[in-house]
Amino acid sequence: MANKNPDPEPLARRVVRKRRPPPRSARRARVAAASAAASPAGFNPLTAFPPAPPPQDDAPLLEPRAVQFGGHSHVIRLLGPADEGRLISFFNSHTGETIHQRYGYRISEMTHERAQRLVGVDQSRDVALGVFERATDGEEVLHAVGRYLLDATGRSAEMAFVVRETKRGLGICTALVRRLLLIARARGMSYLFAQVQADNTPMLAAFRRHGGRMRPIPGADATEAFVPTSIPSGSGSSGLP
Q1: What is the CATH number of the domain that holds 213?
Q2: Is 86 part of a structural domain of the chain?
Q3: Which residues are CB-neighbours of 162 under 8 A, at least 6 positions away?
Q4: Is 177 helix (H, G, I), strand (E, B) or coil?
Q5: Within a domain: residue 12?
Q6: In 12-39, which positions are buried (b, 16+ CB within 10 angstroms) versus exposed (e)?
Q7: Which 3 state secondary structure label does DSSP give 5?
Q8: pTM listed for this prediction
Q9: What CA–CA distance (Å, rounded) separates 36 from 30?
Q10: pLDDT tens-digit profile of 61-79?
Q11: Residue 86 belongs to what domain range?
């Protein structure tokens, strides 16, 4: 998986550091700085990609949507405070490798405090989506999370994703990428960005399918991806997921 994570604690630098992250305000500033520093020479994502139209009504994109993955019914919807326990169970299913890819450093547990932050984001500013499946006992099971965190400039946001190991290869991450891009475009953003481990070829491929531009981050085994919110025709990603 990619370094898929805007926790409300963005992933900037997490790919290369394993210490506890600095305060939130400092992290957001560093995310914006990292984006600029990691851009290819002469590459400015604000001008390289087609501008987004003026902000539009994003309400339809925030509504729950039924989807099929692997022949089974799932729902993509916003995470909310009632999903805290589901998020903790989802985290407990992760392998050590998935945790490292998701957060950029080792986390031994998903505390209630962290889970509350992750499910309690302001969805009018940031976005946190979950992919759920109804279990035989009627309970919803969380299989994937995609989120973005608005950067310090307010003109873009950092994306992050994590999918349950047993649910990969079904198109779930692609659907989450597409939905986040559509929401960001409706909110007037022309691109989103992410930091991805260099050997995470599936995530890099997903971003490239959506017109993403990549550049290795000097001194780190990671790549910065800039992905336009104007979804390319022929990507198989037009319309709502």
Answers
A1: 3.40.630.30
A2: yes
A3: 1, 4, 5, 94, 98, 101, 102, 144, 145
A4: helix
A5: no
A6: bbbbeeeeebeeeeebbebbbebbeebb
A7: coil
A8: 0.78
A9: 10
A10: 999 999 999 999 999 999 9
A11: 24-42+49-228
